[in-house]
Specification:
By secondary structure, the protein is of the alpha+beta class. The protein is 40% helix and 20% strand. The protein is globular.
């Protein structure tokens, strides 16, 4: 199993202490926005700004380490699980949970692979179920 440093380096990014800390925190949180990561890292990296953390998270998205999640509270969330899966979004708590339903993902993927959408090329499925506890 790769270390966080090796995983970052494998993408071509430099594994700085800040990047390592941000990715480690994302692994702990699973789904998080830059504010949440900043809050959890403020003691160990007090000079690390939310803007810098957002840029680091965005760079991780570009190399495939994270996936962006759009929320109804107008914050950008990031997800460490980059495989196809379903998300349950609690609108009251503004929180994501993974919901692994390979049958649902396959059903939607198979459907989209067999239908032609004009002027559109299907790439992947991103299923998000909204609700409240």
């Amino acid at each position: 199993m790769l270390t966080i440093k090796e995983k970052i380096q494998q993408t071509g990014l430099k594994a700085t202490p800040q990047r390592i800390a941000v990715y480690k925190e994302m692994q702990n949180l699973g789904h998080a926005c830059a504010d949440m990561v900043a809050e959890n890292l403020k003691e160990s990296f007090p000079s690390l700004t939310v803007a810098t953390i957002y840029n680091v998270l965005d760079s991780f998205v570009e190399v495939g380490l994270l996936v962006k999640r759009f929320s109804s509270n107008n914050k950008m969330y990031f997800d460490v699980n980059t495989y196809d899966h379903v998300h349950i979004y609690d609108e009251q708590m503004n929180a994501y949970k993974d919901y692994n339903d390979p049958v649902l993902v396959k059903m939607v993927t198979d459907y989209l692979n067999n239908v032609e959408i004009p002027n559109f090329k299907f790439r992947t499925v991103d299923i998000q179920i909204l609700g409240r506890q």
